[in-house]
Recover the amino acids of this structure.
């Protein structure tokens, strides 16, 4: 038995992590069932965390050790099968912490907001930065992310549907540009990931497990996403009312979901349709 598909916060070997205790995920090779695991993490060949043998079928763990800026951590997993026999160690995975100190980070956040205000909250990031800008802004204040998303001026996401788009264009002017580029582009189109994972809060948290953590905001009155996952359809939607936000969640068969609502409510549920 061997662990495969190692991920940190659902990412493969991420850099610039800004989570003090990131979650580590893996799968079992061949779809086998584990009964226990052991995780060993190192930095510059020095062991910084050894979980020891943990008897659990859960294929995830939270990294508990203290992390510092610019630190690179390598980690690997060993599994035990139903006969309680230890398998081979997995290949190593890694993650690296953010590059800025706390003081530098605070300065960078203020400078980013000032730059957006000077640019009238239009989208001015490049090819590599555009998929991450809403996450960065939401980390500062979710309303900043919605303010950028809802801006209808060019350049901006909503200027495209105002010009008749039903996809996300590579060029802001789309078919009206002098040189027509892709009319269904993944760089600017990465905004859809934020809408799924943050606005409506749908993300995969492991095998047969989901995290549903919607974050309503801005001037939107309602939103809903539906994801046809390998486990079945999972969806989340919210609607603003005079009595506050109402939520509808659907979890597929043989799955569980951790529900985390913006008002602080938390609940773990099984398959079914729910209203909150």
């Amino acid at each position: 038995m061997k662990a495969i598909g190692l991920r940190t916060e659902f990412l493969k070997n991420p850099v610039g992590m800004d989570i003090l205790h990131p979650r580590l995920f893996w799968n079992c090779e061949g779809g086998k069932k584990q009964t226990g695991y052991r995780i060993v993490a190192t930095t510059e060949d020095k062991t910084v965390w050894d979980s020891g043998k943990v008897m659990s079928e859960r294929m995830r763990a939270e990294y508990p050790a203290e992390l510092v800026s610019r630190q690179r951590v390598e980690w690997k997993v060993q599994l035990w099968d139903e006969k309680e026999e230890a398998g081979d160690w997995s290949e190593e995975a890694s993650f690296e912490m953010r590059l800025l100190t706390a003081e530098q980070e605070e300065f960078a956040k203020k400078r980013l907001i000032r730059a957006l205000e000077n640019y009238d909250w239009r989208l001015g990031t490049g090819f590599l930065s555009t998929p991450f800008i809403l996450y960065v802004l939401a980390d500062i204040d979710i309303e900043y992310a919605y303010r950028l998303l809802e801006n209808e001026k060019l350049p901006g996401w909503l200027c495209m549907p105002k010009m008749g788009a039903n996809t996300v264009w590579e060029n802001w002017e789309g078919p009206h540009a002098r040189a027509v580029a892709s009319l269904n582009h993944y760089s600017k189109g990465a905004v859809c990931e934020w809408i799924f994972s943050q606005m409506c809060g749908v993300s995969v948290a492991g095998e047969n497990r989901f995290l549903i953590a919607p974050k309503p905001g801005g001037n939107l009155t309602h939103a809903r996403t539906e994801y046809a996952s390998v486990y079945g359809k999972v969806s989340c939607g919210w609607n603003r009312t005079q009595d506050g936000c109402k939520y509808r969640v659907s979890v597929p068969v043989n799955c569980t979901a951790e529900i985390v609502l913006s008002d602080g409510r938390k609940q773990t549920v099984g398959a079914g349709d729910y209203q909150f």
User: Anything to note?
Assistant: The chain has three domains: 3-96, 102-191, 200-275.
